[in-house]
Amino acid sequence: MMMAMTESPPRRGRPRSIEVDDAILAATLELVSEVGISGMAMDELAKRAGVAKATIYRRWSNKEALVIEALRSAMGPIESADTGNLRTDLERYLGELLGRFDRNPMNDVLPHLIEAACHDSGIQSSLDDYVQFRRTPLREIFERARERGDLDGDADIDVLIDLTIGPFIYRRLLTRDTVDERFVARLLDQILPSR
Amino acid sequence: MMMAMTESPPRRGRPRSIEVDDAILAATLELVSEVGISGMAMDELAKRAGVAKATIYRRWSNKEALVIEALRSAMGPIESADTGNLRTDLERYLGELLGRFDRNPMNDVLPHLIEAACHDSGIQSSLDDYVQFRRTPLREIFERARERGDLDGDADIDVLIDLTIGPFIYRRLLTRDTVDERFVARLLDQILPSR
Amino acid sequence: MMMAMTESPPRRGRPRSIEVDDAILAATLELVSEVGISGMAMDELAKRAGVAKATIYRRWSNKEALVIEALRSAMGPIESADTGNLRTDLERYLGELLGRFDRNPMNDVLPHLIEAACHDSGIQSSLDDYVQFRRTPLREIFERARERGDLDGDADIDVLIDLTIGPFIYRRLLTRDTVDERFVARLLDQILPSR
Amino acid sequence: MMMAMTESPPRRGRPRSIEVDDAILAATLELVSEVGISGMAMDELAKRAGVAKATIYRRWSNKEALVIEALRSAMGPIESADTGNLRTDLERYLGELLGRFDRNPMNDVLPHLIEAACHDSGIQSSLDDYVQFRRTPLREIFERARERGDLDGDADIDVLIDLTIGPFIYRRLLTRDTVDERFVARLLDQILPSR
DNA sequence: AGTTAAGCGAGACGGTACGTCGTGTCTTGTG
DNA sequence: CACAAGACACGACGTACCGTCTCGCTTAACT
After folding, report:
1. Which residues contact residue A40 at a Cβ distance below 8 angstroms, ignoring those fewer than 6 apart?
2. CA separation (Å) from C51 to B107, C19, C23, C63?
3. How far apart are CA D131 and CA A154, in angstroms?
4. What CA–CA distance (Å, rounded) separates C94 from C78?
5. Helices D42-49 & D18-35, crossing angle to 10 degrees?
């Protein structure tokens, strides 16, 4: 990684301003959380960010691409801490995920992105990345547990992950029931081997 | 004329045509499945249904309200057949649900509706209705199982339902992994007490 | 064609109500004077008149036909009183015309009718009737004056009429200058032979 | 750089395209003459002009405001040539006015504008401008004649103008009698002092 | 120091859909 | 049949948003 292998394209002319990037992403998160994605107008966004619309489109090819990056920028990776205990690991991970959801306007962002992904394969793959990005720590947790013997050798880890995340998504998007630590506990009670 | 439980509001003026309702709903389903919700233009819809735009807006206040009703009209209830066995009941119900998903353009409809529900409380409650409508048969299945003794008396039925539907939603909307009978089997293997 | 001068069409069923005619015409004049012709909606008119829209269209084939009749009903003929003096005759006639204009919402009715007449020959001929209807008394006045010798034998009566009415129309429709008795006097000073 | 009487407002953003203005005005005249004002649809106009509807509405607040400007753009000023003779001056001016009327789709434009002016004060004042714009040359002609002594010192010039234009308007809009050089001659025979 | 290429704010632009309104016709039930 | 009520087809309206474009200015890096 030494030497800056990220090739330096002969960079001529005025370089892009980083403050501008930040201002746009910040304004995006702000606006999305206020009015939802479809309620967010690019004109309004530009005004809020103190930026020209063309400046936005120079960086992102469209609204969804912008939103998805704003989202990812706001939601860093979640480490899968290894406490040596499957249930504790899951509690930590899900607790952290919960906090992210609560602090971010995920509610109506996800649905919009999902729909956008239907007709735009770029968004499609960004969303796929994001999804995998959330599954990976869980997979690590479950695999560690299997190695430890806390889980059967033939445990269906993919389905376990689905069972862990699925109800979260379902509640956030559809039932809008509370998703809190109490719910995490009830969920794990069902999924994990009783003893 | 006895009973007359549906009071007859003295009905003045030309009554709304039922054919028109049907034509609109049918055209909506057709169009949505072809081009998605956001790709469906109300002008085009009106033309397809052989109906004036004003006639549509006389019945539904906006696009989403229409789509959600079209959806519900297309998706009748799913009976929870009582086979006397929890796993079989669930297999039947989920198998049927699977078929509905496949035959209907649910994929990008749900996300759109979920987002629309964020700023429109009418759509909100319609969606809530729909969600409960899908939960009820599962609740019946689980309660029957509990009475039968196939499930612990203190089983957390709400969470069991979340565990049953959640992964479906998650896969359809986010991972886009296959959702078939094989998956149903793996899911049930995890959820249900081994024996 | 002899006898039965008002032919009686075999008249079956419920006869048309005269109150309805009156209510419609009255409401028309009221509305037109408030919001102008193009601002008058037939739905609103029906509501004001306490009448169904179909009832209006049963009597008049369209909005303009209705308006033109409302107008004519409001503006009876103007007699050309014979005072034995040309100037006095004209003063009387124009004074009366003035009063009619002031009491009626002629201002924006005429322009609308004129335009409507461009694409509807029925309105065209109704308007023609109305125009002639206003010219006739003037023609009588001028012809009497000619017989009396107050006007040259070869006086161009058509143009004299144009000169009498034209400025009225021009001022009402375009300049919106005041049109009062003072103006009538100045007009006649120019048109009539000084002595 | 001396003088610089037209201050340059620091001009930000992309300037409005003059070609667009021209295209819109041209298409407006074309369409109006084909189908009349009320027959002209803004969608069709936009298509003809090769322009977006929003671009039209950025310049004119509504249909009438556009039409009136199209009209003014099409009808340049008429110079009041000074031939040293009142009658000849008037003949020239009216002859020219006649030509303009014939070459332009004035017929149903004026009535529509007059009505529109009733509820829109912007159109009102535009129309006023236009009216004055047509009166000015006549005023000059009559004033020159008065200075020359061809007209009494106390001649009522305002009324003379009304007498000159009024019959034109009246004939075009209401009687639809021919308005040609012959008519101009008869008109002037009546208005002007015989010798 | 001057040149050059790109970034940038502002806002015009083409396109497309939206939801509303107005006209004149049609369809009920009631007199 | 007339009538009130109101649904209906048609078609125009003016607005909103998206993503692109053109201005004139600014900001570095390369001569």
Report:
1. A28, A31, A32, A63
2. 50, 10, 8, 15
3. 93
4. 10
5. 130
Q: Which residues of D touch C36 (CB under 8 A)?
A: 115, 118-119
Q: Name the phi and psi angles at C97, rounded to 5.
A: -55, -45
- Say how far apart CA A66 and CA A51 lie, in whole Å: 14
Q: Which of C176, D169, D161, B173 is nearest to A165 (CA)?
A: B173
Protein-contacted bases of chain F (C-beta within 7 A): 1-30
Distance from the Cα of B54 to chain A's closest Cα (Å) equals 24
Contact D159 C39 (CB under 8 A): no
DSSP for D35-53, written as a single string: H-TTT--HHHHHHHHT--H
Count of beta carbons in the 10 Å neighbourhood of residue C16: 12
Q: How many CB pairs under 8 A join C and D?
A: 124
Residues of A in contact with B190 (CB under 8 A): 156, 159-160, 163, 191
DSSP A4-53: --S------SSPPPHHHHHHHHHHHHHHHHHH-TTT--HHHHHHHHT--H
Please tell me the pTM assigned to this model: 0.82
Coil, strand, or helix at residue A64?
helix
CA distance C156 to A22: 84
What is the rounded CA–CA span in Å between residue C172 and residue B183? 83
Least CB-CB distance to A159: which of B108, B160, B190? B190
Q: How far is D20 from chain C (nearest CA, A)?
A: 29
d(CA C182, CA B137): 89
Rounded CA gap, D160 and D157, in Å?
A: 5
Which residues 59-98 in chain D have a CB closer than 7 A to strand E? 59
The tokens for D125 are 């004042």
D111 touches chain C (CB under 8 A): yes
Residues 6+ apart with CB under 8 A from B5: none
How confident is the model over B92-134, as pLDDT tens digits?
999 998 888 777 666 678 888 887 887 777 788 888 888 998 9
Tens-place pLDDT, residues A7-62: 455 678 899 999 999 999 999 999 988 888 888 999 999 999 999 999 999 999 99
Contact C114 D187 (CB under 8 A): no
Q: Is C185 on the interface with D (CB under 8 A)?
A: no
Q: Do A190 and B119 touch (CB under 8 A)?
A: no
Chains that touch B (3 or more CB pairs under 8 A): A
Residue with tokens 């919009």: A112
The single residue listed with the structure tokens 């009737």 is C129
Interchain contact B185–A (C-beta under 8 A): no
**Chain C interface includes D167 (CB < 8 A):** yes
